[in-house]
Amino acid sequence: MNFTKLSIFIFIISLSWIPFSSTQAQTQDLSPQKATEILQQQNDNNENSDNSELKEKKKKKKNKELQITESFYIDLLIDILTVLTIIIFIYFRNCRNKELFFTYFTFNISIFLLTFLLNQVKMSMGAAFGLFAVFSMLRYRTEGISVKDMTYLFIVIAIGLLSAIQLEYYELGIINGILILSTLILDGNIIFKHESYRQIQYEKIEFIKAENYSKLIEDLKERTGLNIHRVSVNKMDFLKDTASINVYYYSDNHINTITETQF
């Protein structure tokens, strides 16, 4: 029994000694030149790994930086020219409002820059929602701006968005051309006449009667100098013998400063 245990022990020792002996033999067989080449190869591998990590860091940093190229200025120029064409040659032909011109132009530039920023810089979802939350705090009262003015505001916002998403120049030109052409046709007195209206406080309440409608139209034409073609009554005050009426006329591309007048 003791002999069997001794034999097993010697066998295990011999198995563990064989790899060690072969490794030692290989180490002894390496020449100094071969060992130097192995060390140089290991150093090259480490250097390549460091270079790869450095390039990866530079790439991530580059993605976080804002890159303003020549296409940015071209897109901005196209955006500004499109907005100026719509506002000056179409909107101002029917209504002149310097405050709204400032609003339209500023909104357009702000939307363009914001969209360009969100497309170029990798921002967190929280930061993006924060920017839109600040933008959503802006409120507009319906009494201060008409539906038509709100429509023009939406148009200039859409132009700013489309110009900043880096479309091909011919695609951007086609889209902006469609917007300009449709706005010109629908609001440029080409197909449809532009009907304007003004609210008036009218004191000749006896002319409000249906049988005196023609006299009412003639009196309003003479007083206002407008080519009025219809009138609607908002409310009547019999204590003051006045009525609040709306007069409708075709603007014929001229500017009239009457907003609310008492006659």
| Total beta strands | 4
User: How much helicity do the residues have?
Assistant: 55-70%
The overall average pLDDT, rounded, is 74
Largest sheet: 4 strands, mixed
Number of distinct helices: 8
Q: Per DSSP, what share of the residues sits in E-state strands of 2 or more residues?
A: 5-15%
Shape: rod-shaped
Radius of gyration: 40 Å
Q: Structural class, please? A: alpha+beta
Spans of at least 5 consecutive residues with low confidence: 17-30, 254-260
Integer count of domains: 3
Order of helices and strands: HHHHHHHEHEEE
Cα-to-Cα separation, first versus last residue:
133 Å
Q: What is the spatial order of strands in the main beta sheet? A: 2-3-1-4
Plain-language structure description:
There is one protein chain. By secondary structure, the protein is an alpha+beta fold. It has three domains: 32-61; 70-187, no CATH class; 195-262. It is 65% helix and 11% strand. It is built from eight helices and four strands; from the N terminus they run H-H-H-H-H-H-H-E-H-E-E-E. It has helices spanning 2-29, 32-64, 70-94, 98-120, 125-136, 147-164, 169-187, 213-224, and strands at residues 195-202, 228-237, 242-250, 260-262. Strands 2-3-1-4 form a four-stranded mixed β-sheet, covered by helices on one side. Helix 3 packs antiparallel against helix 6 (147-164). It is rod-shaped and about 120 Å long. The model is unreliable at 17-30 and 254-260 (pLDDT under 50).
